Amino acid sequence: MTALPPSLSLAERVALVTGASRGIGKSIAETLAARGAIVAVNFARNEDAAAAVCASIEAAGGKAVAVGFDVADPDAVAVGIKRITDEFGGLHILVNNAGISIDGLLLRAQAEDLRRTLAVNLEGAFNCSKVAARALLKARTAGRIINVSSVVGETGNAGQSMYAASKAGLIGFSKSLALELAGRGITVNAVTPGFIETDMTDAALQGDAREQLLRKIPLGRIGLAHEVAEAVAWLASPAAAYVTGHVLRVNGGLAM
Fold first, then answer.
1. pTM exceeds 0.85
2. Boundaries of domain holding 104
3. How many domains are there within the chain?
4. Residue 35's Cα: distance from chain center in Å?
5. Staple partner for 244: which of 15, 159, 178, 213, CB 3.0–4.6 Å?
6. Is residue 256 part of a domain?
7. Residue 106 exposed, middle or buried by CB count within 10 Å (0-12, 13-18, 19+)
8. Is residue 65 part of a domain?
């Protein structure tokens, strides 16, 4: 692995990335590992995909372990994070990335759709942060919590009222928690990706829909998962020690 300047190195730090078996979460896990972190790759259902991410990290010279739990289940979160701290002696970085999107117009939406969206996207971050904060407080190095929100949490988007509400809530949660933990040297920040090339966006953005979106993005293209991962890795690094309560936009200029 290429040597990194100390300000960017995550050596000897343990990171948990939720929803890391695919897409943006996978890229975040791989990038943090490339910076030297030991990475717990969380998954809810797809153990094989999480194992493949771990294998990819280890093939590149890093260290990772797959840890399965549903972030919406507080008891499962507590068990999963205890396993990580017991195995690796602590936890220094938490990336709340796990999320779902149940899209549709409000008039057709079901109450259960809203409950599940909030349970994963917002309560999941609450559950993980509450348990992880205790471990971060015990860590010898300054802790980091990074919440992956979304551009639509800032702008809204027709057909995504439930998703946008959960992601907007995550921004408010990040700023409030930043204030609570700053005195203990723990930073809390949010990243708001725009439209990123993943399996989900590939399925949703076809033909004219993709072309119409590209015309709205000043940089003229859809983003890549590793570009979000680089932003997260910087916020997790010593270089960002004086950054907290911030919303870092990775959206190609779609929202400024």
1. yes
2. 14-197+226-250
3. 1
4. 16
5. 178
6. no
7. exposed
8. yes
CA 144/CA 166 separation, integer angstroms: 21
Residue 22 lies in a domain: yes
Which tens digit of pLDDT belongs to each residue from 225-235? 999 999 999 99
Mean pLDDT of the chain: 95
152: left (phi over 0), alpha (psi -120 to 50) or beta: alpha
Annotated catalytic residues are 163
Task: Classify 60 as helix, strand or coil.
Answer: coil
* Mutual angle of helices 161-181 and 124-138, in 10-degree steps: 20
Query: Which pLDDT band, with edges at 50, 70 and 90, does 204 fall under?
Result: low
- By CB atoms closer than 10 A (0-12, 13-18, 19+), residue 107 is exposed
Over the stretch 168-178, which tens digit does the pLDDT of each residue have?
A: 999 999 999 99
CATH code for the domain of 115:
3.40.50.720
* Best CA proximity match to 229, nearest among 184, 196, 181: 196
Q: Report pLDDT digits (tens) over 161-203.
A: 999 999 999 999 999 999 999 999 999 999 999 999 987 777 6
Tokens standing for residue 37:
């972190």
The answer to the question of residue 203 being in a domain is no
Q: What is the pLDDT of residue 206?
A: 74
